[in-house]
């Protein structure tokens, strides 16, 4: 589990093909590896990946074909800057929102413009994910917990304002440009709320109908 508050950025150092899957080596000289062990999770551009090797300031992760097919990772290149966040601890300050690191879809940067000291960004997301968005709601873009300032449902657009600190602490200032593919994770609470409501509707539709009638009461001695 993560919070969407980026701790460090790293550089994609190597991409290796291994038996149909992919192994990534990420160089992160600013990251503290003292509390990281093999098998721990680190979110890389919002994708929860398991550490399989640590070598000095670098670590390696294996990526399955499923992850490759469902995320923007397939477009990554050596030298790319990645947003990194270690899995949260019970004592972690919860500065963002609940992030699972399970990417729901791939979006695209549609617009970037200056807005005073901030950066105004529009991200086009898959149409099926729009129902999970709301004005002033939370969304994760490339692992960054962000607040949606507004939504444009007809265009499948979420509108964001990025403050200077967030832009500098992530790969936004150096790497985001119009047309760039980004990983999208919607609010976990919205997904589970939808599941709960759908289950309730299904239960109501499949519940036994009330079949009590005068004939039933008479047959069972309640009605003469």
UniProtKB/TrEMBL annotation:
It comes from the Bacteria. One of its GO terms (molecular function) is riboflavin synthase activity. The keyword Repeat applies. The keyword Ribosomal protein does not apply. Keywords: Repeat, Riboflavin biosynthesis, Transferase. It holds the Pfam family Lum_binding. InterPro entries: ATP_synth_asu-like_sf, Lumazine-bd, Lumazine-bd_dom, Riboflavin_synthase-like_b-brl. Lumazine-binding repeats lie at residues 1-97, 98-197. Residues 1-97, 98-197 form the Lumazine-binding domain. Pathway: Cofactor biosynthesis; riboflavin biosynthesis; riboflavin from 2-hydroxy-3-oxobutyl phosphate and 5-amino-6-(D-ribitylamino)uracil: step 2/2. It is an enzyme of class 2 (transferase). GO terms for biological process: riboflavin biosynthetic process. It catalyses: 2 6,7-dimethyl-8-(1-D-ribityl)lumazine + H(+) = 5-amino-6-(D-ribitylamino)uracil + riboflavin. Coiled coil: none annotated. Its EC number is 2.5.1.9. Catalyzes the dismutation of two molecules of 6,7-dimethyl-8-ribityllumazine, resulting in the formation of riboflavin and 5-amino-6-(D-ribitylamino)uracil. Homotrimer. This is Riboflavin synthase. It comes from Moraxella caviae. The gene is ribE.
